[in-house]
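Bumping with the actual sequence this time:
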Amino acid sequence: MPSSTSETTGQILISVGFFDFSKYQGWWGKLTQLVGRSKITHVAPIFNYTTPTTVTLTVADEARLHKLKLFSDCLVEEVPFHYMNVDLDLLMDAASGYADTTVWDAVFYYFIGKYLGLTRPRNCTTFVCSLLGLPEFWHPVDLHRYMKGLK
């Protein structure tokens, strides 16, 4: 992993990690599982460095890089995507714009706002879709189903 976020890593394999974070998310995680009829509650890009470690970027209350092994017990599936150049400064700046959505924003949108034609709040899934140039999905399990259909 680069020593600072100002380093450009060059070409690395990007995978999409689908996680069951319900034990960290509490009632929100359980609701996400119920609505999606799946144990997948979170999605995040995985940066497969050859040395020294593989990291993932989570978007919750703030954007953060983590060693993937920290969440290995929560990883449901890792779907390899493609190689791309990664500039961690730009990536962290972009991700921080997705960390301003609260659980209440998401709940309001899902149960009321979408019927009023309101714009979806940004979340982990919309971040991954934007980063990788995929069609936009809002629920992590919808993106998972789409990516599994690509194979």
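The tokens above came from a reply further down the thread. Helices lie at 22-25, 27-36, 88-96, 103-111, 124-132, 140-150.
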